[in-house]
Amino acid sequence: MHELSICQELIEQVEQIASEHNAVKVTDIYLTIGPLSGVEPHLLKQAFPMAAAETIAENSKLTIDKSSVKVYCESCNKETVVAANKLLCGECGTWQTELRGGDEMILQRVVLENRSND
Amino acid sequence: MCDTCGCNITSGNEYLIQPDGKLALTEDGKQAVTVLKSLLSENDRQAQHNRDHFDRHNVLSINLMSSPGSGKTALLEATIKALKDSELSIAVIEGDLETENDAERIRAHGVPAIQIATGSACHLDAHMVHDALHQLDLDNTDILFIENVGNLVCPASFDLGHHHNITLLSTTEGDDKPEKYPVMFRAADLMLITKCDLLQVLDDFSTEKAKRHLRELASSAPVFNLSAKSGEGIEQWLEWLNSSIQNHQSQLKNHKSIHPSIQSDGVKFHQVTEHTHGHSHTHSHPHHEHN
Q: So what's the ipTM on this one?
């Protein structure tokens, strides 16, 4: 539902990066999105062309790397991959865990094209 | 804080910047810029600005989130009544898609309320809250409640600059809501089970189950039963508010602030901009060299 707002923020960031690097075109955008970020990757992909239209990122390729939810248990000294709504240690089952991954909503990388004679 | 030292490099993302990492090789003639920034970094920047603003005015700011109709405005009305004779002054920002109804309910109690009509937006963001702040007299405010748009999904992703998140779960909604909406309930610093006066007629809501589902999100947030109608739990809620105000004040004395316990990536990941030209050099990133 809020994926379009997030895409608009993404485009603003990408436009700024492109201008800092004197790019004429953005060809690729790489994101990492986790299940606990509150953002749905496929909805983000649907909203992206609308937000990118008539910007330097128009027709760029959006690649989303989905991260998995990981928790760390101090008493087991172990990290386990778990479901987004069961953040329990995979070894001992305690809820007193620390989230180590899965809440990311990160712009990892953009690939830019400069003028051909650069 | 540290744009250069590389402390934002975690075990999860460091492969991206290793010389032979899967994205380190770039296409010919193109520049690849590693960003490692939250998608919401502009919102997060505005949120931090709002938080600084609250702190300068000694205002504790609380974000109330829940489904529509779970009793956020009723909780505020009960809180205003209960604090009527106290020294504390309250202000409210109301978020809804349409109408001034909730702000009018609050104003009827003599408390200033600013209504944000979001149109079709399903959440408040830091910019909307910032605009509303300019219409409030923060010098004469101790607690600012931000009543977010009723929605168990989107509001959880946006930092508004508030100090605490409170998530309401009303007894008519079902005790498995934390299991169904983990992003929202994981964000709660306090979960209030509202409309508890209805528990006697509901046979399918267990407060213990609701609490267990919250714990399964690795959350140690306190859970209070509350009824704005009967007054049950109001005292405990006011105690929580008072201790939060004191805690905030003592943090401010130490030139610190308070953040909701679950922070967005924008807070965890400081900006770092890595600039590599394609098909060129490989380089290692000797952040934190140890001798």
A: 0.90
Residue pair A105/B32 in contact by the 8 Å Cβ criterion: no
**pLDDT digit string, tens, across residues B8-29:** 444 454 544 444 443 444 656 7
Q: CA angle A107-A110-A114, nearest 5°?
A: 155
Contact A30 B23 (CB under 8 A): yes
Phi-psi region for residue B82, left (φ > 0), alpha (ψ -120 to 50) or beta?
A: alpha
For residue A100, which phi and psi values (nearest 5 degrees)?
Answer: -110, -5
What pLDDT, in 10s, does the model give residues B170-201? 999 999 999 999 999 999 999 999 999 999 99
Return d(Cα B76, Cα B120) in angstroms, integer.
24
pTM: 0.85
Contacts of B35 in chain A (CB under 8 A): 13, 17, 107-110
Contact of B40 with B157, CB cutoff 8 Å: yes
* Strands of the sheet with B274-277, listed across from one edge: A61-66, A25-33, A105-113, B30-38, B274-277
Which residue reads 């605009």 in tokens? B131
How far is the C-alpha of A106 from the C-alpha of A37, rounded, in Å? 10
d(CA B279, CA B107): 63
Confirm if B8 and B268 have CB atoms less than 8 A apart.
yes
Which residues of chain A lie closer than 8 angstroms to B123, CB-CB? Answer: 2, 5
**Tokens 């509303």 map to which residue?**
B132
Contact: B122, A103; criterion CB under 8 Å: no
Q: How far apart are CA A17 and CA A11, in angstroms?
A: 10
